[in-house]
Amino acid sequence: MNHPTCALLSALAFTPYAFAQTQSTAPAAPPTQLQGVVVTGRTASDPVRKDIETEQAATPGAVTVLDGEGLRQRNVTSLADALRYVPGLFVASGSTGDATFYSSRGSNLDATNYDGNGIKLLVDGLPVTGADGNNHNRDVDPLSARYAIVARGANALTYGASTLGGAIDFITPTARDSAVNEVLINGGSHGQRQARATMGGHAGAFDGLVTVEGKRSDGYREHQRQRRSAVYANAGWQIDERVQTRFYVTAIDNKQQLPGALTRDEWADDPKQAQAAAAAGDYQYNVKTWRLANKTTWQIDADTKLSAGLSYERQKLFHPIVYSPPYFSLLIDTEQRNAGATLRYERRVGTHGLLLGLNYARMTVKGSNDSYTPSSWTQTPFTTVDNQADSLELFAMDRWQFASGWTAVYGAQVVNSSRDIRNTSVPGGALLHPSGDYDAVNPRAGLIRQLTPDIQVFTNLSRLYEAPTTFELQDDARGDGSALAAMRGVVAEIGTRGTHTAGRHRWHWETALYYGRLRNEILSRDDPDAPGTSLSMNAGRTIHAGLEALVGASLAVDATGTHRIEPLVNLTLNHFKFRGDRVYGHGDLPAAPKYAVKGEVLYRHASGFFAGPTFDVIGRRWADFSNTYQVDAYTLWGLRAGLGGKGWEAYVEGRNLGDKAHVSQFSVRDRAAAGDAILSPGEPRSVYVGARLTF
Prior knowledge:
It is found in: Cell outer membrane. By secondary structure, this protein is mostly beta strands.
């Protein structure tokens, strides 16, 4: 990074010192007193919010918290919509209605985003990511979350996560802590219509909540229709005043047509068209999921808590994805099963906050890769699949408040995992059998300085580690049955978060500057002999560095605060490069932009009315490792407005109102040619409306 950039990063990282000079000189409160950094719309008496803020304030690194109330005030149908204002993440949709390309601190810079690795996803602290780290079949619904906690990079140690990008934990509502009865509807451009109904109640020691959802969309491209239905439910039992248990049930049936990728000329001619092969082969992404989970918590005493969880999930995938007769076609017809267990012990001993945890997960994938004929759906297996993975994560952490306003956070994670791939050729019987065991100890040390009760500065030095997924092992570019190595590295981070009130004006911010060096980063590129499939490799040495900043304010424009202006800006600067690679030299890593800025400036009235513009400014990206094929930068603008009253609210949102043609996501090649079909167009001009009723 050049000197002006470094100066800017340093200035942003130490913003709180300027604010701190205007604060009271009262003694600094411990980290648990940090209030309202990101979360809005809840009362201070909300115990779930209090626990989340306590955890956030005790983490010496970047953690963003999303409030589900805010997600209901705009059009949110995918993780790309939900994660819009999370710095450090680049998220994009475009290939399907729900599937999202997401990269956190340069994770998952992949050929096809096929397994969506690099971020561990959890629901209520229980993992939904596969034991091998893949999120390929994942259907996480952001509107089913009361809160979402995004811990980036090594800051996910509190979840035991062993991933480059960190973890996201979705906290679901219960009948005891949310508006029990609720109806949400939305619809608009491209045939989108969605409806959700939630009902629940509690009686004595028991409570229950169930949500039923239906979604339909024609898509903004040809052959992009989606049909989705889902049920989310949980039931709790307060066994006594210290012990409670809760059961969770999820069932999702998602059917999605895939429009395929376009060449640059096809995209320029008509970005709404489907790839010819995708239409002829009727490419689809159909997933049926059901999941059962339980979590039990025992508050042993005021300073000690023990929690345990179990989960089991089955996913059936029907995924025709390649059709180029008479040479090759591919339909993935598999069933993935995931079982998991977690155990957490927390204890406060004087000025020490101890955490001990264990995660265990096991996954199997069985089925076949078939050739097929779309008109009759005749399937002929050419490979049987029998893959297994397990993962054990042990982690320990101490948060030691060794002086007033100072907290040292240190700990380590122990990882023990295995991968076993058995792909058998039909009818020849040749076996592809890469397998490997992956073990590591990953230490972490950090420091938090509480400048005022509402402002922190933090820093940490951590080890990064991530083992390959089963998909990466079976798609190894070498194809000789050997196993890829695990990715390892070290990252340093410094940043700040806080709130500041000056009269009737309020500010909030979170910024982080990080620099990491990796070895053996696992990267994938599209297979030129079988477009739509990927080939994986271990890169030599790479750099992952960047700046993450979320800055917002609520500024009164009159003496009573009835009228307010509320700007919000999410800025991410990325510096992802090879480091003296024998093939790619010091070139840039593909897929992630150099910069991404997303924001809004809203006018809010005390009556509940709000309105204002939104904007997206995305930098250029490389579509190949050789840095020869560039995807252009783009700027989009939109508008959103809403109005609410007692028990109801409504919104309208316009996106890309300038109807700017742009590329949302793409496949990555080793060296892309001008005529390669790799581009997925972004959403054109669109308008959505929605309403919510609580009772």
